[in-house]
Here is the input.
Amino acid sequence: MKQKQKILILYLSSSSLDSKVIAWTEYDGTKKNTHMAGDSDIPPYTSGLEALQDGWRLFQVSSLDQHIKGNEYNTGYLKYEFMFEKIEVN
Here is the structure.
């Protein structure tokens, strides 16, 4: 039996896992589903906590970097990135 990995990256509105999903992407190593960035207006989960409750395992959280004074509202990147995985056996 082969193990295949699925990856889910959620960008949340704050550093709290129960905050709102504002952007996302998904990669499916099982080849059961094909997703492309921007192919849906509805996120797969409303929060990171909801993904955990559905069986996704959290394996990386973005660091909480302090912004330099004057750059608190820089929108060049989404800073609350959470990476999840699911392992499926075929």
